[in-house]
């Protein structure tokens, strides 16, 4: 290819990159720019090359043979470099979605997304954190990020249990529940306690942790992983 032809192609690409273009994918249309498509996709770099580049836009929307639902995820990735994630706390990851999206990523020659899916980096985007602590049976979880809580009886001990001076059962064991009337009934006397067997529990909490450093192509953790893989491949081919 002569230097003149290459220069004309670059000029044509610069010209069409300035405005929006329309892609016809199945029964849906997508508006984007050439720059968005070519900067991360080898497929679209080939599409938007050649002397007939400007003619492609004069003929109307550019047809792309792909599933429109999956292409929407591809396009969102091309725009911002954020990886698609399909996960919920009950069912986990949608592996069928990842498998079909992987084929589309290969077709559109988007190597970062291929690596993310093939190496199952989506498992690093969402992780479970499990913690346990001693607690009573009426332990209250005040963290909105906690997904599940389980109580396990750990041991039994002899302990003192507060008795309400007015004999109110719901105040038993909870001196803070007593109000002015209870204090008045107590007067100058010391609070009374019963000795009884108290069950102690282990509270096991599970919460989800989202790791943004793995969720985008320029995320620090994913970028470091890609660099490491490139070094390993280079060493293997040497």
What can be said about this structure in brief?
With 238 residues, the protein is of the alpha+beta class.
Please give the number of β-strands: 8
Describe the strand arrangement of the main beta sheet, using strand numbers.
2-1-3
Number of domains: 2
Mean pLDDT: 83
Stretches with pLDDT under 50, minimum 5 residues = 4-9
Shape: elongated
CATH architecture of the largest domain: 2-Layer Sandwich
Q: Which structural class best describes the helix and strand composition?
A: alpha+beta
Distance between the termini: 32 Å
Order of helices and strands: HEEHHHEHEEHHHEEHEH
Could you name the CATH class of the largest domain? Alpha Beta
GO biological process, one term: protein homooligomerization
Pfam families: BTB_2
Organism: Helicocarpus griseus UAMH5409
InterPro entries: BACURD1-3, BTB/POZ_dom, SKP1/BTB/POZ_sf, T1-type_BTB
């Amino acid at each position: 290819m002569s230097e003149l032809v290459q220069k004309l192609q670059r000029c044509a690409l610069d010209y069409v990159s300035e405005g929006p273009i329309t892609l016809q994918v199945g029964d849906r249309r997508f508006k984007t720019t050439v720059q968005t498509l070519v900067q991360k996709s080898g497929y679209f770099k080939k599409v938007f090359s050649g002397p007939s580049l400007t003619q492609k836009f004069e003929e109307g929307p550019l047809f792309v043979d792909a599933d429109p639902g999956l292409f929407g995820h591809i396009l969102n990735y091309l725009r911002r470099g954020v990886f698609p994630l399909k996960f919920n706390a009950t069912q986990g990851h949608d592996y069928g979605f990842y498998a079909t999206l992987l084929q589309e990523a290969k077709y559109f020659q988007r190597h970062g997304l291929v690596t993310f899916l093939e190496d199952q980096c989506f498992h690093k985007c969402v992780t479970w954190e499990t913690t346990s602590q001693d607690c009573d049976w009426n332990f209250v979880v005040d963290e909105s990020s906690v997904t599940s809580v389980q109580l396990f009886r750990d041991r039994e001990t002899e302990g003192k249990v507060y008795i309400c001076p007015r004999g109110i059962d719901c105040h038993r064991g909870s001196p803070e529940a007593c109000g002015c009337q209870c204090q008045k009934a107590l007067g100058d006397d010391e609070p009374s306690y019963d000795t009884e067997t108290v069950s102690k529990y282990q509270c096991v909490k599970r919460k989800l942790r989202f790791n943004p450093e793995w969720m985008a192509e320029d995320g620090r953790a994913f970028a470091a992983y890609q660099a490491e893989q490139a070094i390993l491949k280079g060493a293997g081919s040497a």
